[in-house]
Amino acid sequence: MTTGSGTPTRPSAGPQRAGTPPVAPPGAAANWALHRFSLLVAVCTGILVFAGGLVKSLEAGLSVPDWPLSYGQVMPPMVGNIRFEHGHRMIATAVGMLTIILAVWLARRESRPWVRKLGWAALGAVVLQGVLGGITVLLFLPAPVSVAHGTLAQTYFCIVVAIALFTSPGWQAPVAPREEHGGPSLRTLALVTTGAVYVQLILGATMRHLEAGLAIPDWPLAFGRLVPPFDAPGVGIHFAHRIGSLVVAACAAYTVGRVLARHRDQPALVAPAVVLATLVVTQFVLGATTVWSGKAVVPTTLHVLNGALVLVTSLVLTLRSFKFVVPEHRALAYRPLSTERVAT
């Protein structure tokens, strides 16, 4: 077998054990350099999320009152809270530049059109994110714009993590999906969990930007009760965020339990499931510590970052469930296509 340029290639590897991320067969389209670069972009995005959370935790958002320059300069004196706000802008600029490279690299080297489109979507998201950040400053931190800014950051994080997953050799290698029988499918459970986490992060961003983080000053009770009196500003959104955390925990527990009960021999599913469970428990601890410490900077900011990690981990589990597991009601329709894919 040869490529279009006449370069000989070896045949693709045969089917792998279901659910195991296989090694990319020789001649596969996997591009290790591109994959590693996309991982770099994802890691830098996590750092950017932390930096943005730190700006809010320190209330440093207006320490630089102009945009796109900082006090009319490219590099202002890095003193006081200016170093946190301007540092956030510098990291955001670096991520934007990395995203341009990623989008162009995907456009030139990636053979799958939908992955190339993801690259352009990431670029569009990061540009819009920068514009929203500027509007936030110029309009003196209006809550709706700030919440949109935070929400788009989570969306962009999901896009670049998905690109990193889709460009990995394990994703592109052929695999025989396992049929799943009985109850809601793992695909459905993981998708619902990811959606619940995303909504929860929006609630958290709304609570933070409405300055309602301490509207209920105790935890796990609320004013010493299971249900607080809703007679003070911010109590409603704060309590909604707490209820949301219980919903996320229940969804994650059900999903992780399904993986461990039925897919224990599939490392591609077990690994993100175990990480997800760990992150959810950590998120509860950080949330409680945030309240108990009166919104101390470190736990509050780590709470923001860990929430983002919960989201992208749940997303990875969701995407892998679509690759490695096929629900019972789709098994008959899927099996011939699956067999053909493995054969080719």
Describe the structure.
The structure is a single chain. The chain folds into two domains: 30-173, no CATH class; 175-344. Helix content is 67%, strand content 2%. It has ten helices and two strands. A two-stranded parallel ribbon has the order 1-2. The longest helix has 28 residues, at 82-109. The protein is flat and about 55 Å long.
Secondary structure layout plus pairing:
Layout: H1 32-57, H2 82-109, H3 113-138, H4 143-166, H5 169-172, E1 178-180, H6 186-209, H7 235-262, H8 267-292, H9 297-324, E2 325-327, H10 328-343
Parallel strand pairs: 1-2
Structure in a nutshell:
This protein has helices spanning 32-57, 82-109, 113-138, 143-166, 169-172, 186-209, 235-262, 267-292, 297-324, 328-343, and strands at residues 178-180, 325-327.
Query: What shape does the CA trace take?
Result: flat
Radius of gyration: 22 Å
User: Which sequence of strands runs across the widest sheet?
Assistant: 1-2
Share of helical residues: 55-70%
Question: What is the total tally of β strands?
Answer: 2
What letter string, H or E per element, gives the SSE order? HHHHHEHHHHEH
Spans where pLDDT lies below 50 across 5 or more residues: 1-30, 334-344
N→C terminal distance: 13 Å
Number of helices: 10
Mean pLDDT: 87
Number of domains: 2
What's the assembly state of these chains? single chain
Strand content: under 5%
Decide which structural class fits the backbone: mainly alpha
The largest sheet, given as strand count, sense and whether it forms a barrel, is: 2 strands, parallel
